[in-house]
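Lecture 7 notes: from sequence to structure.

We start with a single chain of 217 residues. Read the sequence below before looking at the structure.
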Amino acid sequence: MSQLKTKVWDSYTRIYHLSQLVLLALLWYSAEEGDFENHFLYGFILLGLVFSRIVWGVIGSQNSRFVEFIKMPWQLPSLYRKKQLFVKESGHAPMAGYMVLALLLSLIVQLTSGLFTTDDVLAEGPLMYSVSEELAYWFDEIHSLNFDILLILIGLHIFAAVVHLALKHKVIFSIFTGTSVVSSDVKRYWRASYIGILIWLISSGLAYYFLFDQASF
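Now the structure, written as tokens:
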């Protein structure tokens, strides 16, 4: 069977994956060091990044759209029989799609709760005073609990990556290169990546402009 090298990920999606990883590491480190000025800064950058990914999941390149890889539960048995549940030549497999969705939801919870939290010592989220003190403490608990959930999801993501590598799947490499080897090429719709990057930069800039000065650290 002939093998063809083809483009599977646009530049925006590849930048998103790497930027998300770097920003999560920076957020963890800044929180551990008590550097909440930079913690909020990284948070606003990640907030814009996640927002841009959600938009890209609707209007972006074909392989990056949610409709391409998030399948309904009743579709899974058929995909399993076709051996397409865990591995897909081009783009995210359905189970990887569920992981993408779980990570995005967890990030949304983490970033949103962080806007309202307080530790009563060093830091107050920019929107803390827009809610009651009791609700602010509740958001702080959610922020702490969801961080543990986020770590579990990241651990599962890493475990899946190791399994793919062990089975010699090209999934991980394609995230870095943007290309993959497939048995048959299929034409896909591509959206210019600069649009997604602009959405990220503008939304992060707006978050910083309207919220950074309201945070206390």
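The beta strands are 4-7, 179-182. Keep this in mind for problem set 3.
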